[in-house]
């Protein structure tokens, strides 16, 4: 889909350091795009007056938790849904604190665009680089650098140009090439929804204009079909005595009646003889439709198997992956975990933690470095691991397919999520350092 339509949907996430103005920006977007209900605005105005503020504090539109309102910060992912005449939006407002970087992983995991905020007075800081690295790690296709609080630097073009150049260079070192920098003031509303009269030197789109027009989605026919089986349907009724269908959501690509497919991990090949969508037969299905697929042969297929058209990923028990650790409990070599990939969950062993990725290295030196991780991965760490699963899995490389190249590591004792994984190498520019493991013990 190359152009915006009234029915197109954009999922995007906002991120930035503490007090960069994320919640105010989101509130400004909702307010100025007329997406705030009257009772919501009245509640915000009342809360603002009780704090001694004359104008409504638009940040309160997104800071819904009491702890957030009391501290004036965002500590959880706040999802908001709004629409304009040109497009519908699902927005994930993610926290700014370093200890909540894992929340950005959650918010950006399904995003097609990330808005990274920078305070014009502070420029690119470590947390800005961390958020850019997470966006690159998750293969978010589009990134917007919103240089906020331009009103506090007298709307100076050189300040904006310097920050935009530094961030663009760092993003390029991560492999992110689609970056748009927009100078804004969320508090005053400059270049958020309406063009700014204070920055006539800026000739680009406003933030909302870019959100409404950025290409979303992808051409399903350009991707191989991947269909994880969720449920096997065998009604065995008088009306359908021999019906056998495999229900699930098409993760990617297009599936047609007559396609030759491979069922993994068994490797058996067969042909699609029927596709049922919403209870009716159809000749074609495309991602992300939920359908029931019928095959020519009665194969032993169950939940977790993958039906693939075109080149199918080879099943393997040995997985190398880039991971983002999300749990307070460290991830260490030797840990026994559960690995959830699409609809399949298997037992797995963390054989090795190859390295931790340090994102604080200078941009002039590449911006990313490999560091030893003798004590494992701590919460918010990004690293590279080697896993061994009890059963073979058919994973695509994450760089090729975000849906079938991703997985979760789960604590088998209590079911909590430990780590988000991306099969293969996420970054091509990570430099190995000469630092020995002894230097870090």
Q: What does the radius of gyration come to?
A: 24 Å
C-alpha termini separation: 51 Å
* pLDDT < 50 runs, ≥5 residues: 1-6, 64-75, 434-441
Overall outline: globular
Number of strands: 24
- Name the structural class: alpha+beta
SS summary, helix count:
7
Largest sheet: 8 strands, antiparallel
In round numbers, the mean pLDDT is: 84
Share in β-strands = 25-35%
Helix content: 10-25%
List the helices and strands and how they pair.
Layout: E1 9-16, H1 22-32, H2 38-50, H3 66-71, E2 78-83, E3 88-93, H4 101-108, E4 113-119, H5 126-137, E5 142-148, H6 157-173, E6 179-183, H7 207-213, E7 226-228, E8 231-233, E9 245-249, E10 254-256, E11 260-264, E12 268-277, E13 280-282, E14 284-286, E15 290-295, E16 306-309, E17 316-325, E18 336-341, E19 344-358, E20 369-371, E21 382-393, E22 406-410, E23 417-423, E24 431-432
Parallel strand pairs: 1-3, 1-4, 4-5, 5-6, 20-24
Antiparallel strand pairs: 2-3, 7-16, 8-9, 9-15, 10-14, 11-12, 11-16, 12-13, 12-15, 17-21, 17-23, 18-19, 18-22, 19-20, 19-21, 22-23
Helix pairs in contact: 4-5
Could you walk me through the main structural features you see in this protein, from its secondary elements to its overall organization?
This protein has helices spanning 22-32, 38-50, 66-71, 101-108, 126-137, 157-173, 207-213, and strands at 9-16, 78-83, 88-93, 113-119, 142-148, 179-183, 226-228, 231-233, 245-249, 254-256, 260-264, 268-277, 280-282, 284-286, 290-295, 306-309, 316-325, 336-341, 344-358, 369-371, 382-393, 406-410, 417-423, 431-432. It has 441 residues and is of the alpha+beta class. The radius of gyration is 24 Å and the shape is globular. The protein is built from seven helices and 24 strands. The strands form four sheets. Strands 7, 8, 9, 11, 12, 13, 15 and 16 form an eight-stranded antiparallel sheet that branches. A hairpin with a 4-residue loop joins strand 2 and strand 3. Helix 4 runs parallel beside helix 5.
């Amino acid at each position: 889909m190359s152009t915006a339509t009234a029915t197109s949907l954009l999922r995007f996430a906002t991120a930035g350091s503490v007090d960069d103005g994320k919640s105010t920006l989101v509130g400004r977007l909702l307010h100025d795009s007329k997406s705030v209900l009257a009772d919501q605005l009245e509640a915000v105005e009342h809360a603002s007056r009780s704090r001694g503020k004359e104008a409504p504090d638009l940040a309160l539109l997104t800071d819904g938790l009491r702890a957030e309102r009391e501290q004036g910060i965002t500590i959880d992912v706040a999802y908001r849904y709004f629409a304009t005449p040109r497009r519908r939006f699902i927005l994930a407002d993610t926290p700014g604190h370093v200890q909540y970087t894992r929340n950005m992983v959650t918010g950006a995991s399904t995003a097609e665009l990330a808005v990274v905020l920078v305070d014009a007075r502070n420029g690119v800081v470590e947390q800005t680089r961390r958020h850019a690295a997470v966006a690159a790690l998750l293969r978010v296709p589009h990134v917007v650098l919103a240089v906020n609080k331009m009103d506090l630097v007298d709307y100076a073009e050189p300040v904006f140009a310097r920050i935009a150049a530094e961030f663009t260079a760092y993003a390029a070192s991560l492999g992110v090439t689609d970056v748009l920098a927009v100078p804004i003031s969320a508090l005053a509303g400059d270049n958020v929804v309406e063009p700014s009269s204070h920055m006539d030197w800026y000739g680009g789109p406003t933030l909302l204009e870019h959100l409404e027009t950025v290409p979303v989605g992808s051409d399903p026919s350009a991707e191989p079909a991947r269909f994880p089986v969720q449920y096997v349907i065998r009604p065995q009724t008088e009306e359908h005595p021999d019906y056998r269908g495999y229900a699930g959501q098409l993760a990617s690509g297009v599936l047609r009646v007559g396609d030759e497919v491979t069922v993994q991990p068994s490797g058996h090949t067969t042909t699609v003889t029927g596709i049922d969508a919403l209870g009716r037969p159809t000749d074609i299905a495309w991602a992300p439709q939920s359908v029931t697929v019928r095959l020519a042969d009665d194969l032993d297929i169950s939940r977790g198997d993958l039906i693939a058209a075109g080149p199918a990923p080879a099943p393997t028990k040995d997985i190398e992956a880039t991971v983002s650790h999300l749990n307070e409990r460290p991830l260490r070599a030797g840990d026994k975990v559960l690995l959830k990939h699409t609809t399949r969950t298997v037992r797995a062993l963390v054989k090795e933690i190859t390295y931790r990725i340090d994102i604080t290295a200078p941009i002039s030196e590449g911006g990313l470095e490999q560091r030893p991780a003798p004590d494992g991965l701590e919460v918010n760490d990004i690293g590279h691991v080697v896993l061994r699963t009890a059963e073979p899995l058919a994973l695509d490389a994450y760089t090729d397919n975000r849906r079938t190249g991703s997985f979760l590591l789960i604590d088998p004792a209590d079911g909590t999520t430990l780590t988000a994984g991306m099969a293969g190498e996420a970054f091509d520019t990570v430099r190995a350092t000469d630092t020995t493991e002894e230097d870090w013990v």
